[in-house]
Specification:
Layout lengths: L1 E5 L13 E5 L2 E8 L13 H18 L7 E8 L2 H6 L1 H12 L5 E6 L10 E9 L1
Parallel strand pairs: 4-5
Antiparallel strand pairs: 1-2, 3-6, 4-6
């Protein structure tokens, strides 16, 4: 499997994402949206960074179970109930990402939503990966 990240000089410098990712491989893994649910199905964490940590950990756990690793992520979408709050915590969320997933960023987007499935959830992540 090969992922190549494209960040053309004529676009603004990416911070915490890649502008485009090309992938070659033989298996796609589609990852369902993950929030800050614990193993009992309850939302944990009061703050956005706490919930982001759990949601990303859940996404990566699903990916590992499918045989992948964070570097295999080609695309991740973040759904946030408060984009201004997400932006305010961007530096901390970036540190959390690097700690859990490393420095190879997939193509990403942050989408503001009115609410998520669970009322207490502040953030949800989904995506797909390409494996050999």
């Amino acid at each position: 499997m090969t992922l190549h990240r494209h960040n053309p000089a004529e676009l603004s410098p990416p911070t915490g994402f890649s502008h485009a990712v090309t992938a070659t491989g033989s298996r796609l893994v589609f990852l369902a949206g993950q929030t800050a649910l614990d193993t009992d199905g309850k939302v944990v964490g009061e703050t956005l960074p706490e919930q982001f940590t759990t949601a990303l950990s859940n996404l990566l756990a699903a990916l590992r179970h499918a045989g992948g690793a964070p570097a295999d992520l080609a695309r991740v979408t973040v759904y946030a109930t408060d984009v201004a709050e997400y932006r305010a915590h961007a530096a901390e969320l970036g540190r959390i990402w690097r700690q859990l997933a490393g420095r190879e960023y997939p193509a990403m987007a942050v989408v503001g939503v009115v609410r998520l499935w669970d009322d207490q959830a502040r953030v949800e992540l989904d995506g797909f990966a390409v494996l050999d």
